[in-house]
Amino acid sequence: MNKLVFLDLDGTLWENENIPHSAVRAIERAQANGHKIFVNTGRTRNEAIDVLEPLHLDGYCFGAGSEIYYQGKRILYEPLKKKDIQTIYDLLNDLHFGISLEGSAKSFCNFINKGMYLHAFNTMPNTFALLRFLNSPGMDEFTEADYDQIMKIYLYNIEHVPYEQIIPKLPKTTELTEFADWKCEITNRKYNKATAIRTVRKLFDDSYETMAMGDSENDIPMLKEADLAVVMGNGSPRVKPLGDYVTSDIHQDGLYNAFQHFHLI
């Protein structure tokens, strides 16, 4: 049976925006065999499309399911509401959070997140890809028109404020997802990586089954939604139990080996 394959980016398809050659070969061969390959990522369009376009994928699910493309056409676009962005920003700015407003066309970050990116760039190996975020405009460049293209909010809880103190104060239309190292993101509650799969699935008949590949906590919805769930060998311990198959590490041809295991190639 042909498959609709949904790939996370960071830690799954690429690391620091470097895609293993084996992954490129696997995607090309799978497409030639009739499978459809989609990215399903928390990143917004402007944070990834330049690297992805040369792969000629069948489609993209950006911003945790809030912006979706198939064969070059946008089929879903749901930015956060202006009043929700304002509420979240005012609340978390007062609590000294690092804040990045991540947009379809442009992203913005405050000085705390800029400092976090700069520290990582200066102290960690292989972080060239962080320049994308480090060079984002500051909040002083944010305009009224930019409210219409903000898809999600990425946060650094620098003072380790308990999340149970924050979540009840967030707009009911939004949802907070925690990551490691006091990072988290806020997205539209209606959309996630699972709803992205459902949206794309409606475009195809029953001759396709779905397969999702991921490595971290924000991949959990799509791993639960897909017919087949694959977790990377470098994946989070919280995520690995959800996999029908745990493939090898991203640096050990994890994507290629998973495609081979399920006979896509």
Automatic annotation (TrEMBL):
Pfam families membership: Hydrolase_3 (PF08282)
GO molecular function: magnesium ion binding; phosphatase activity
InterPro entries on file: Cof, HAD-like_sf, HAD_sf
A GO cellular-component term linked to this record: cytosol
Top-rank lineage group of the source organism: Bacteria
PANTHER family linked to this entry: HAD SUPERFAMILY HYDROLASE-LIKE, TYPE 3 (PTHR10000:SF8), PHOSPHOSERINE PHOSPHATASE (PTHR10000)
Designated name of the protein: Cof-type HAD-IIB family hydrolase
Lineage summary: Bacteria, Bacillati, Bacillota, Erysipelotrichia, Erysipelotrichales
